[in-house]
Amino acid sequence: MVFSYSLFKKIVSKIPPRPQLLELLNFRIFEAEGEGKNNLEISIPANRYSDAVSHFGLARLISAATGAKLIDLVLASAKSRSESDKFQIKISSKKQCSRYSGLYAEFSNLKSSPQWLKDVLADCGLRSINSVVDVMNYVMLEIGQPLHAFDADLISGAIDVRLAKNGEKITTLDGAELKLTNQDLLIADDKRPLAIAGIKGGKTAEVNTQTKRIIVEAANFDGASIYRTARRLNLFTDAGTRFAHGLSPYLVERGIRRAAQLLKEICGAKIGDWVDVDYSKLDKTVLKFDVKKFNALTGFNLEEKVCLEYLKRLGFEIKGDLVTAPPERMDIESFEDLAEEIVNLHSYDELPAIAPKMILKPSGQEDSVVLKSKSRKLLAGLGLNEVYNYSFVAGLKDQNFIWYSNNAKLVELENPIAEDKKYLRPSLLLGLLKNVEDNWRFNDEVRIFEIGRVFAEEKGGLSEKLMLGLALGLKKQRPFLELKGSLDSFFSGVGLLEHDFVPVGDNLRIESDHHVLGYVRAAQADIAVAEIDLTKLVSLIQEEKEYRPLSKYPSIVRDLSFIVDAETRVGDIQNILENISKLVEDVDLVDWFQDEQKLGTDKKSLTFRLVFQSEERTLTDEEVGKEMERVVSALEKKFDIEVR
Amino acid sequence: MDFDVLRRNVLEAIKKTQDVKGLEQIRIKYLGRQDGELIKILRSLKDLSVEEKRKLGPAANFLRNELEAAFINKLENLKLKIRNSQSNLDVTLPGKKVPVGHLHPLTLMENRIREIFQSLSFSVVEGPEVESDYYNFDALNIPANHPARDMWDTFWLRQKVQSSKFKVQSLLLRTHTSPVQIRYMEKHQPPFQIIVPGRVFRYEATDATHEINFHQIEGLMVGEDVSLANFKYIIEEFLKQLFGKNIHFRFRPSYFPFTEPSLEVDIQLGGKWLEVMGAGMVHPKVFDAVKYNSKEVRGFAFGLGLERLAMIKYKIDDIRLFYSGDLRFIKQF
């Protein structure tokens, strides 16, 4: 929020020059900036609107920091009454309005404001309108209490603070017609709405050039109610924002007195009755200050009187070790709040660094954190690069991307930031496929992976899963088998004892111990992708690897080449080869080809390398020869093969 | 022929030969099974008298063994030379490119930060990215219908959840990693110290320093006598390990609803002060929300932006590069 340096000058004695003031604000009070102009931009915390969104409030904080004396504002010594014969006030909605004050004033003619006042308004980004409206705004800037002036002659009957009727309309000062609901609070007379309470005045009783008699409003409205209305109407005014944060009812009285003073001084007004309808309960917060507790919480080693002196400068009442916050300090609720005041004024510069006392306990990491780290290292070792994509997607053409959940739907945002970011990603592959295309402009070979969360809406609720997505895009090759091989290395690297690739159409389903872990597919001939459920993988990993003694006996290697129907799946053959003989230690496909001229269109040639080994003895050629015969006859039973 | 002459000739020839082929020719000439000169001599021994046989035989066999050993020795030598010389290799050619994958700079940064905090006895935990408004706001002392919530521009989901018979909870994308403080404390008792890395979301326009999703690391230490001075110690250690021993840092007053007192941490780099972290002592209302006795425990919490630290550390000037998927960027790390 913007504040005027020249107004600070009027109310802070010995105010530091602007650069030093900014420094002081930043290190003892609130974040602030502003260079070269006559104003300062100060960030007021959301819990400090009651005491600090005003020049006087900040002057008190600045004075407390510099140790200079605070100059109080001149307030008229008016006395409130509960009713008047000139005007009536009632509050029908006490829940939304705890205090409502009206101050009667009359003057001969409406003057324009003096230049110094116009300058202060301008520093704070406000336009001068006429001296009455300007005084209302000026007092708000000084004290923090929003004020409003009605033309008393345009009000018929009593002023009532009530909830609007559903559909009730009001025309605001800027001429906009707004439709209200029964949640919105109104200031109304007997006939019409006069203002949207705490947010904006209406046309009906607007102060105008003919105005001679006014009623000044200073009130306290419920923050949540004002905030709801402002949000619903999307109408954010200075006054509305202040009320929404919550203000102390105490400010009402200061606002009225200061307004009375300035109306006299500036507008030459004659001040009449002040009617104050007050249902508010000003509970004073009394806290016990324990300096030991303060030093334990902060690590400082301050004396009690030093601490109390800081609080005193901030306007706290001190009686022994009991402290009472000033009535506008609505943020002070607990001991910790007092501690913050003292720490800030004392400054962090002198805070010591002290090693914490800790119980010796090994630090740990969640299993999924460990798996993520391990996966990343492995995949980088396999030549894949890591990318991060947005969690948002445009939509989904292919429902198969949500393979891990039946009948799942996309998770939709209520307030998407863009058309192409309306949903949460159900799969990492959408991003990875785009990454491959993008990178193909610079690189023929793209090997990437991403680890991240994916989302889907299921019947029971919302699912959030940790996934690993991989994509290989090789412009001049078919990357499917490379990806499959990388996955083999990946799974054994993370400590998964066994996994299977089960063909499902053109895809492979990755299974382990009867759990589906993910899918591998050729998105197109030159792009292969896979997605793996890491949450599931975590539960299947056997952390301990166990050493198996190397066989003392030599192994015997035999190659087996044969021709088989082109559509026969290698996986099925491999399966037989691996399981037919106990002596087969390992089976690898070492060569395969299709050749129209040599083999015809419907045949392919496969060469497997079989490694035979026993852990008990040296195998003989004869023995292995017999096993090979068994292998071949087993294949012949199942497939139409021709051994080469 | 005199054995000595033969011996000298053969050894001389072996010595002079510089390649395997030439060596083989010499071997055939003298030790060849068919016409090798020494072999012929050996073969002719059978025609000699027993006495001569006894005299020449052992000498001839001895010579044969000696020469064979010399051939083998030379052959090994030549082979070794071939292996070592690689006469046609230009060793100044650039090395072959062996494909290696690169980790994302945010991963590298997170790993480094995790390492540092683990060395300081902090454990690593994570939490969900979709949260309820209770965990993201209410439990952290950010009440509904208060503008304090506007400090976090929030993405809301269409889907709601029924948390109890009468209460419907709104779902949102967490705006910070702080909800994990609540989730962790609900299930664990102090003392403990944790860090929480994770992705967070803000509904705001993107530019060189703002993204709609980014990453934070939350820290939380709770115990009987944890103080602000302890926080200063931990964070000083952290900053020194991350940025070097000579790093300068400072604290400034700040405001967060879930800490009291609250502060901001700046570091000095290249003459400029940069904001890197928000922190403070855990607010008693946060302890109340997790049913801790706020009179008996204290704690500090902090939150730092991973992108921001990575941008400072690696001198990256646009946050959007992290989410570009551009390998020309990734491969620099």
From TrEMBL, chain A:
One of its GO terms (biological process) is phenylalanyl-tRNA aminoacylation. GO terms for molecular function: ATP binding; magnesium ion binding; phenylalanine-tRNA ligase activity; RNA binding. It holds the Pfam family tRNA_synthFbeta. It catalyses: tRNA(Phe) + L-phenylalanine + ATP = L-phenylalanyl-tRNA(Phe) + AMP + diphosphate + H(+). Mg(2+) binds at residues 331, 337, 340-341. Its cofactor is Mg(2+). SMART domains: B3_4, B5, FDX-ACB. Binds 2 magnesium ions per tetramer. Residues 551-644 form the FDX-ACB domain. It is found in: Cytoplasm. Keywords: Aminoacyl-tRNA synthetase, ATP-binding, Cytoplasm, Ligase, Magnesium, Metal-binding, Nucleotide-binding, Protein biosynthesis. PANTHER family: PHENYLALANINE--TRNA LIGASE BETA SUBUNIT, PHENYLALANYL-TRNA SYNTHETASE BETA CHAIN AND LEUCINE-RICH REPEAT-CONTAINING PROTEIN 47. HAMAP family: Phe_tRNA_synth_beta1. This is Phenylalanine--tRNA ligase beta subunit.
UniProtKB/TrEMBL annotation, chain B:
It catalyses: tRNA(Phe) + L-phenylalanine + ATP = L-phenylalanyl-tRNA(Phe) + AMP + diphosphate + H(+). The keyword Magnesium applies. It comes from the Bacteria. Signal peptide: none annotated. InterPro entries: aa-tRNA-synth_II, aa-tRNA-synth_II/BPL/LPL, Phe-tRNA-synth_IIc_asu, Phe-tRNA_ligase_II_N, Phe_tRNA_ligase_alpha1_bac, Phenylalanyl-tRNA_Synthase, tRNA-bd_arm. One of its GO terms (molecular function) is ATP binding. One of its GO terms (cellular component) is cytoplasm. Tetramer of two alpha and two beta subunits. This is Phenylalanine--tRNA ligase alpha subunit. It comes from Candidatus Harrisonbacteria bacterium RIFCSPLOWO2_02_FULL_41_13b. The gene is pheS.
